[in-house]
Design goal:
Elements (H helix, E strand, L loop, with lengths): L4 E4 L11 H9 L4 H8 L5 H15 L5 H9 L5 H12 L3 E9 H11 L3 E9 L5 E6 L7 H11 L4 H4 E5 L5 H4 L4 E5 L3 H4 L4 E3 L3 H8 L3
Parallel strand pairs: 1-2, 1-5, 2-3, 5-6, 6-7
Antiparallel strand pairs: 3-4
Helix pairs in contact: 2-3, 5-11
Length: 214
Amino acid sequence: MNIKLVVFDMDGVLVDIKSSWGLIHRHFNVSSANNMLEYLSGKIDYYEFMRRDISLWLKVKSKIHYSELLRIFNNVNIPNESKEVVKQLKSYGLKVAIVTSGVNLLADRVCKALGVDYCLSNKLLFDENGYLLPYGEAVVPLLDKDVIVYTLAKALNLSVKDEVAYVGDSIFDIPVFKKVALSIAFNAKREVIKHATIAVKSRSEIADSITRYV
């Protein structure tokens, strides 16, 4: 094992909120539970899942401007510990990526604040006047994160099973845990931890857990 790329999930790992989608749902006071069940059962794909979630917001407010959604995410705190972890990893010459099924409006802000090298997230789309379109771009489907991480590693000429570390916190990160060289469960439940190489409770432990394998 010779780690060269560290990939982070975002929601619940680099930021404390558990779901950037959920943050918008709460803003518009809607529930996506039925859409999630349809997606997890295989009845709809992730593109359709996103489209249905967006339609929930547009039923509450027919025209939603980019600036309104941006304000929601600008209130999300980016912990100093996250900045320190990325800084420490990069000081070892490691590349750092975020691969999240969360919303790009938050992911782009987090990636910029942390100085992340590669940033992959699901995209909300807007018209020429800045108003939300009724569909998005499914870049990181929730159940296919392992495929996205593999594709990123391949593009960088890296071996997933020898040179990639991944940090996640949910059951949806387990497929990635099973494929990478080093998997770290951050502040996760037991059912997630049992699939990880290492389990940590604080962000300050993440860099030390990885750099020993560089």
